[in-house]
TrEMBL record:
Species in which this protein is naturally found: Enterobius vermicularis (Human pinworm)
The keyword ATP-binding appears for this protein: no
Keyword vocabulary terms for this entry: Cytoplasm, Methyltransferase, S-adenosyl-L-methionine, Transferase
Domain of life: Eukaryota
InterPro entries referenced in this protein's UniProt entry, alphabetically: Efm4/METTL10, Methyltranfer_dom, SAM-dependent_MTases_sf
Record-linked Gene3D superfamilies: Vaccinia Virus protein VP39
GO terms, molecular function: protein-lysine N-methyltransferase activity
Class in the EC hierarchy, top level: transferase
One Pfam family here: Methyltransf_31
Gene Ontology biological process: methylation
Name of the protein in its database record: Protein-lysine N-methyltransferase EVEC_LOCUS7861
Length: 234
């Protein structure tokens, strides 16, 4: 997915998209688009599997869409999965596809918790998680006319819901690693006293998950998306 316009960051844009995808699923069993492609999703899943986390580790996907990423994690054995999205039709689609997968496999699989949540005005608590995933949500917010406020609220949410030493894994098609590190860490300004003042722990860059494939143009190599891992420092 290439996010190229301000309208892509609006609720009406995403609401309309998921209304259409839900309709297509109900009529044709088409579960919809895998944002950034299956290769980007596979990169995140393989990395998580390589960490040898407990299968009970709590994982949340912020802006889960049709839930494809979480279903692939469930196939890897993860048991405590949550997906949130502010589009009600996206959550309806995610639930429908997930239930159908269980029927097709004829297996009693652990449930995935899907919730309608506005990440910028979370009422109550989502709880805390060992891993927070983002595949496109940060990109969409960055295209809003209110992007500075939205991204600041989003960073604050990350600090609240990540466990100590928890991981934030973000996949972006709009930003390279250096820019993601700057945007996500800027709230802390590398000043420990600021973290203490607001009662948060800093997110620090851990690594970039290298893609398996790249493309060449004009004699230079490039990738269609960047996946970066941050760790919440205690």
């Amino acid at each position: 997915m290439l996010l190229g316009t301000k309208s892509t960051g609006s609720f009406s844009s995403w609401d309309g998209r998921y209304k259409l995808e839900l309709k297509n699923y109900e009529e044709y069993c088409d579960e919809g688009e895998v944002w950034f492609g299956k290769a980007a999703e596979s990169r995140m899943v393989k990395y998580l599997a390589s960490l040898k986390l407990p299968f009970t580790a709590r994982i949340v996907d912020l802006g889960c869409g049709n839930g494809s990423l979480l279903r692939h994690l469930r196939q890897r054995g993860f048991l405590s999965l949550t997906g949130v999205d502010y589009c009600r039709d996206a959550i309806t689609l995610a639930k429908s596809v997930t239930v159908q997968e269980e029927k097709d496999l004829e297996a009693a699989l652990p449930p995935i918790q899907f919730q309608v949540v506005d990440l910028l005005s979370v009422e109550g608590s989502l709880g805390t998680f060992a891993v927070v995933l983002d595949k496109g949500t940060w990109d969409a917010m960055s295209l809003s006319d209110e992007y500075e406020r939205r991204l600041a609220s989003y960073r604050s949410l990350l600090c609240r819901i990540l466990d100590k030493n928890g991981l934030f894994i973000i996949c972006s098609c709009n930003f390279v690693r250096q820019v993601l590190v700057l945007l996500i860490q800027i709230i802390f300004l590398s000043r420990d006293e600021l973290c203490e003042q607001f009662g948060v722990s800093p997110l620090r860059f851990k690594l970039e998950i290298e893609p398996e494939n790249s493309f060449s143009f004009g004699g230079k190599k490039g990738v269609t998306s960047t996946t970066v891992v941050f760790e919440k420092i205690s």
